[in-house]
Design brief:
Helix content is 61%, strand content 4%. The chain has 205 residues and is mainly α. It has a single domain (3-198), classed as Transmembrane di-heme cytochromes, Chain C (Fumarate Reductase Cytochrome B subunit, Up-down Bundle), CATH 1.20.950. Strands 1-2 form a two-stranded antiparallel sheet.
C-alpha cells in the first residue's frame, strides 16, 4: 500500500533542474572551447561558459544555505547500509524484476549508492573542477599572486578537462538511474511535480 506524498519541495526542484541545465551548458560550451566541436564560436563559447559558471556559483551558494537552514543536508549523509544490496540490484535484480531494496521516504530520499555518488561529486569532482576553472579564469593574475612559479597552464587545463569528463560521467549515470524507478518515468515525474508514491511503513531508521 502506497501513499502519495510531497517529497521534493519547490526550491529543491528549482535548484535541481537549474543546476542540471547550467552543468549541461558548461559541458557543451567547455568542450567547444576545448576544440571538440564548433557551434557558437570560441569567443562566444568562452562568454557563455563564464556566465554559466558564475551563475552556478551563485546557485550553489543559495542551495548550500537552503540545505543547512532546512536540515535537508542530512539527506546526503553517506552510509554503507544496504550498499551491497543496491549494487546487486543494479547489476542483476533490475533485469529480473526483483524488488527494489530501498524505499523512498520523506527522511530518506536518496538510496545508499546515490549518497556515496553525491559524496564523490562534492568531495572530488566539484573541488577539482572549480579550483582548476578559477585558476584558468584568473590566469592573468597568477604573477601577482606568485602562482606562476608553481603552476603550468597546460596542467591546469588538463585537469579541468579531466574533471569535466568526470562530471559528464556522473551526469550520464544520474540520468540512467532516473529510469530505474517503478516505471521509467516515475523518478522524473517526482522531481518535476514534487509528489511521489511511497510506502508509509518503510523503515526510516
Amino acid at each position: 500500500m502506497t501513499e502519495r506524498v510531497m517529497i521534493f519541495k519547490r526550491f529543491e526542484r528549482f535548484w535541481h533542474w537549474s543546476q542540471a541545465a547550467l552543468i549541461i551548458v558548461l559541458l557543451m560550451s567547455g568542450f567547444e572551447i576545448h576544440g571538440s566541436y564548433q557551434l557558437l564560436g570560441f569567443e562566444r563559447a568562452v562568454n557563455v561558459h563564464t556566465t554559466a559558471a558564475w551563475s552556478l556559483v551563485t546557485l550553489v551558494a543559495f542551495t548550500i544555505f537552503w540545505h543547512f537552514t532546512t536540515g535537508e543536508w542530512r539527506q546526503y549523509i553517506p552510509t554503507l547500509k544496504k550498499v551491497d544490496a543496491m549494487i546487486k540490484y543494479y547489476l542483476l535484480g533490475i533485469f529480473i524484476n526483483a524488488p527494489h531494496p530501498f524505499r523512498t521516504t520523506v527522511l530518506k530520499k536518496h538510496n545508499p549508492l546515490q549518497r556515496l555518488a553525491y559524496l564523490f561529486m562534492w568531495m572530488m569532482i566539484s573541488p577539482l573542477i572549480w579550483l582548476t576553472g578559477l585558476l584558468y579564469l584568473f590566469y592573468d593574475r597568477w604573477q601577482d599572486w606568485g602562482l606562476d612559479q608553481y603552476l603550468i597552464l597546460q596542467d591546469v587545463a588538463f585537469f579541468h578537462v579531466v574533471s569535466a569528463f568526470m562530471m559528464l560521467l556522473f551526469l550520464i549515470v544520474h540520468v540512467y538511474l532516473i529510469t530505474t524507478g517503478a516505471t521509467v518515468w516515475s523518478h522524473m515525474k517526482a522531481m518535476i511535480t514534487g509528489w511521489d508514491d511511497i510506502d508509509p511503513d518503510a523503515d526510516e531508521s
